[in-house]
Amino acid sequence: MDEERAVRIIVTGRVQGVSYRWATEQEATRLGLDGWVRNEPDGSVLAYAVGPRDAVDALVAWCHEGPPAARVAGVDATDVDPREGVGREVREGGGFRTLG
């Protein structure tokens, strides 16, 4: 069985107004992850994802490219405990969704 991983992902660059959130939701759902994604006031995109390590790793790798119109400058993926805090809240919500 694949070990569970939870991450907070911050993506910078031209990632707002280019369907980045929608595409992230679609990719995370395809991978079977729980979590959410939203635009931040500073122009970045913030996401939390929880699921099997291989699937989370695949989403993080995908975030470096994003949808065709995006121009990703950076991706910061920080592990969080899937049993506590945001990881638990994401898992309790079930599925992957766009916020805001």
Written account of the structure:
The protein has helices at residues 20-31, 53-63, 85-93, and strands at 4-14, 34-39, 45-52, 71-80, 96-98. It is α+β, with helices and mostly antiparallel strands and 100 residues long. Strand 2 and strand 3 (45-52) form a beta hairpin. The longest helix has 12 residues, at 20-31. The protein is globular, with a radius of gyration of 12 Å. Residues 75-100 are annotated as: Disordered.
What structural category arises from helix and sheet content?
alpha+beta
Ranges where pLDDT stays below 50 over 5 or more residues in a row are none
Largest sheet entry: 5 strands, mixed
Looking at how many chains there are and whether they match, the oligomeric state comes to single chain
Biased composition (Basic and acidic residues): 80-94
Keywords: Hydrolase
Pfam family, one: Acylphosphatase
EC number: 3.6.1.7
Note the topology.
Blueprint: E1 4-14, H1 20-31, E2 34-39, E3 45-52, H2 53-63, E4 71-80, H3 85-93, E5 96-98
Parallel strand pairs: 2-5
Antiparallel strand pairs: 1-3, 1-4, 2-3
Quick summary:
This protein has 100 residues and is an alpha+beta fold. It has helices at residues 20-31, 53-63, 85-93, and strands spanning 4-14, 34-39, 45-52, 71-80, 96-98.
